[in-house]
User: What shape does this take?
Amino acid sequence: MEKSTVTAVHDDDLIGFLKSMGLLSDVQAGRTRCRFCQGVITLENLNAIFPDSGTIRVSCDLPACVKMLMHHISTRQQP
Assistant: This one.
């Protein structure tokens, strides 16, 4: 089994983390979209923040989007 690193942010620290990433105002204003379904990201449905093609992307917590994120991550890690 391959080792991978997972970085997590506790709910209590989410606002500060989003602010430090420059994402908070866009999330609060409803301008941030899920990388996979294009749904609006909110503080309640935010699932992941990840790098993608030189930019920072986000995904929501819909089961289909979580599955697509896992596939996206697994295909990027293959040599």
Summary: The mean pLDDT is 90. The first strand starts at residue 46 and ends at 52. The first helix runs from residue 14 to 21.
